[in-house]
Amino acid sequence: MTEREPLDLGATEFSAEEEARVRREHDLDRPEVFDRRNGIDERAGTRASLLPEEAGTGSADPEAQAREVLRDSDVRTEIPGSAPDTMIERRASDEHG
Q1: Does the N-terminal or the C-terminal CB of the chain have fewer CB atoms within 10 Å?
Q2: What does the longest C-alpha to C-alpha distance in the chain come to?
Q3: What integer pLDDT is reported at residue 1 of this predicted model?
Q4: Residue 85: DSSP 8-state
Q5: Residue spans with biased composition (Basic and acidic residues) (predicted)?
Q6: What is the predicted pLDDT for the residue at 54?
Q7: Which residues, in sequence order, are CB contacts of 69 under 8 Å at separation 6+?
Q8: Can you tell me the distance from the alpha carbon of 71 to that of 35, in angstroms, rounded to the nearest whole number?
């Protein structure tokens, strides 16, 4: 197995110390451990089929693409403060409806 790059948290408001703690707690610097813990390989195999709108353009490696989407989703789920610039904004009117 080749060594992979650490997983990306995206832009965060974490201090350097907080980011280091989060990276350790969630195995972000050990992507193979993160993947094994979250069953990325098994889940990617069932999600590698392209959607009809994706089939037109295709994918060089649908399974690798599925792995990346799953990793990104799992990081955002485990670490709510990750990638705040891409989170959905909630408006006051959404909370009461």
Answers
A1: N
A2: 50
A3: 46
A4: G
A5: 18-45, 64-77, 87-97
A6: 77
A7: 47
A8: 7
Would residue 8 count as lying in a domain?
no
Model's pTM, two decimal places?
0.74
In a domain, 94, yes or no: no
Domain interval for residue 45: 16-88
What's 27's DSSP letter?
T
Angle between helices 31-38 and 62-78 (to 10 degrees): 90
User: How many domains are there within the chain?
Assistant: 1
Mean pLDDT (the chain) is 84
DSSP, residue by residue, 49-62 = SPPHHHHTT--S-H
Q: Is residue 60 included in any domain, yes or no?
A: yes
Select from 72, 74, 97 the least CA-distant residue to 10. Answer: 72
Residue 81 to residue 35: CA distance in whole angstroms: 20
**Residue 37 falls inside a structural domain:** yes
Contact of 22 with 14, CB cutoff 8 Å? yes
Residue 79: count of CB within 10 angstroms of its CB = 20
